[in-house]
Structures
1.
Amino acid sequence: MFRSIQWKLVSIYILLILLAMEIVGVYLLQSLEKYQVGSLARNMDTKAQLIAGFTERYLYPIPRYHEIDDKLIKELGGAEVSSIIILDESANIIFSTDEKFQRGLKLLTPEITQATFGTEARDIREEPKNSERFMYLAYPVTINGRVVGIIYLISSMKDIYSTLNDIKAILLVATLMALGIAGFLGYALSKTITGPIQEVTRQAALMAQGDFDRRIQVKSNDEIGKLTEMFNYLTTRLKETMEEISDEKEKMEAILANMADGVIALNDKSEVIHINPAAMNMLSLDRSPEGSDFSESLRKYFDVAIEDFLGEESDLRETLIKTDSLILKAIIAPLKRGSRVIGLILVLHDVTRQQRLEDMRKEFVANVSHELRTPLTTIKSYTETLLDGAMEDPEVARQFMGVVNNEADRMTRLVNDLLELSRLDNKEIRWDRRPVALNRVLLDVIAKMKVNATKKRQSLNVDIPETPCEVIADRDKIEQVFQNILSNAIKYTPEGGNISVKLELLERDVRIVFGDTGIGIPREDLPRIFERFYRVDKTRSRELGGTGLGLSIAREIVEAHGGRINIESELGKGTIVSVYLPSNSPAGRDLS
């Protein structure tokens, strides 16, 4: 019942009246209480001053306590004051109208204690026995700045709170009457609003069944009338839009049917809702799998599920699949409605020719590496023999063979790099993955490379935390990456330059930052810096012994560990290389 607008409006009216009455009632009661309490306090002040003026001659200079007139004191106190107690300067009772306070006893309360120092004090307290409130006033009697006595008045507040309770009862009855009237009027008013809305609802239900010719008679010019007009306009626009959608659907189906690329669409239940002829030809399907579960006919080609794309950071994914005769590049994208994934779109590109060319290139690199390694070993052996004095002119021969030896070393490094790249490309590396403390690996690498930096009078700034930053990695390969990057920093930084190494633990990753003040890299060369054999300055790179493969190997190793490597540089100012590896440290896991 209370789900309808009519009853919601009635409830709102009742709640508004209730809220208004409560606010007025609270404000009125608080104001009355404040006024009554204030009035009582002022009255007690006046009576305390009268009693003090009357009794000061009995207190000073010669105490004459027995001469105080009981009847007069009671008359001065009046009916509002429950008890009148007069105390000397030491808080001893010398007069009392209440039998509970016997003469000669010392009476110490917070307000009396304050009055002994010459300050008037007041307090309101509740009696534990009957929960009745009393106001207490301690008024000092002073002569020439000296306290000679204290007037202590006690007044009951029962009448005040009795009056307030009567007012509360009156307000409660008034509130109930107001709520009843508000409910009746709210029901009558809401009926005039919900009636037309119910008519719109009935017509909308007919529209949901496909009848877009519905019209509602406009009976007013208010908001309800505007709603009715807009409903009639909506039915017209919906009919036109549905016709446009139908036309667009036919166009889209024609485009998909004639595309060279394959397209497969899945719904949120992993069912095929569309597949074009190109995709069927690429996957050698003899019948359309539309309406069937994705796994029945296509799972053997694709390892994909809707659940893989449910994260907030889900994005496009690419993968290569092989059929009997083709190599296909599949681009898988989530189909979203707002932030919810409602399906997947798979686009298939035939990359058979490109992949075969890539395979040929990789095979060439592997063959060249194997072919070069044997003659290099022979050249190395003959060079060492000649350097031992086999040449007729020892000085010239030694100089010449030294150059040959250096070139042989360089070619050997090139072959080794090529072989390692080939193994990385062909997934032939056997990784020895285990928990590794990166801070210890970095310190070992820095210790090995520090001699080279010292020779060039370079300052090496290290910022590595003592707390272990652990990753799952092949220690030797990660050490190779760090040595390669740090070696480049030392090579391409002039004498007297600065090199920095910093390790940070992020939310999910460990970041290692290598910075230098070296020659830098031009902006136009940065996109190609990881290409194999690519050199920014070929002459200078060869002079320093570079092969052009170090950064390519480093990126392959880092990416094989699930990480990434970035380079930022500015010509003439230096280079920053950042390596990110997935963290295995407890701090990193907690933050993630």
2.
Amino acid sequence: MRLVSGLALLLAACSGQGPRSAAAERPSIVSLNPCADAILAEIAAPGQVLAISHYSHDPDASSMLADEAARFASTGGTAEEVLALAPDIVVADAFIQPATRSALEQAGIVVETLGIAGSLQDSLDQVAALGEATGNPERAAVLARKISDSWQAHEWSGDPATALLWQQGGIVGGEGSLAHALMMQSGFASLSVARGLGQGAYLPLEEVLADPPRVVITAGDERAFDHPAMGFASDMAHQELDPNLLYCGGPTIPRALTRLAEIRRQVQ
């Protein structure tokens, strides 16, 4: 993850121009990264974020609550749209088109990227980095404490229940993913990890029935659970998890933990 180069100069330049509004004292931002959107919505000063990504305005793709996302304008991610807003900083993901990045940088805009958080610490590091980058370290520290407190509050102390997190297309959450870390923290032992499957691996229905877990948690439209053969695994519970809770870390973590805790109590 890279989120510091060039930003100290922007912050220093902004800080020496006399008394202004809270947003004016900080660099203006356009986010093209839906995971950064959710963090910036909580830590940025009012008016500092000029636009968020269009993904956050799509209920099927957003990790933000709808009323939160509606507070911000959005862009389709094109260089032309961003240049028209003239931000100081653009926060993108690692897959930003080279031509788009080049056009923004040639206009003097600092382009920073945010990777995929694979753990609690990754997510906390991203919150801290965005706080420093945008001149909001104190607000970022408050969000980080909220996330950490929720993580500790949801730590399961009893025996884990064997679970399969089945995402759309039959893929599973593997070791080294935030989804797996969330399940472990909530009292689940991952069936897919026990079988050595990595993040995004495919687990067919036959293998699930051969050694069924205590609970199958489906996130998204996973049709395999509706297969008639699933009726033979009568002791296997089924719970649903909003897939939007697995797209990003940051402010989504407390909501994901709350839902997983509900599932764990029902399984118990």
3.
Amino acid sequence: MSDTDRLAGVTALSTWIASRDEDPVAEPHDAGEADAAGERVDEDAARSIALRALGRKAASRQELDRTLERRDVEPEVREAVLDRLAAEGLVDDAQLAQDLAERLRERKHLGERGISAELRKRGLDPEVIEPSDGDEELQRAIDAAADRRKRMGSLDDETAERRLYGFLQRRGFGGSAVRTAIERTRPRGPRFR
């Protein structure tokens, strides 16, 4: 196979990939699903679309509903499929919210407001999670501030604290937690440059 033939194959593949829908949850249409002629998607086909989406990533009921809607599934069929998946325990928004909140607390060191915002983005109700106590949130803020301060060694104190304040606020921490975290991570003693 010549280089020209290989390049033509790569170009064709690149064109095909670029032409696909950029939805990370969507799947290509199967022969049994709705086609360009406007056939209706039946409940089995809609269920398989939803299951494939769940196989790639845990999804909320709202995210699955949007995925099915983009695939032109009728509202009654979407509702039936989602109710069936919920009855089988495959779609559990409360459990997904708990898992996601715990992951965001541990890995991203987010504050409660940041966690609530992330849950709303995914179509989950932030009221179903138990908020962490103030001490846990303060410790996460201190940990995040200490980690971030290590990367700000070349900045003067005023600039570093201003940037750190904005960083912690974007992470969803409250004003008192931010002020305390900045105080507790402030360098002590003389600084040499």
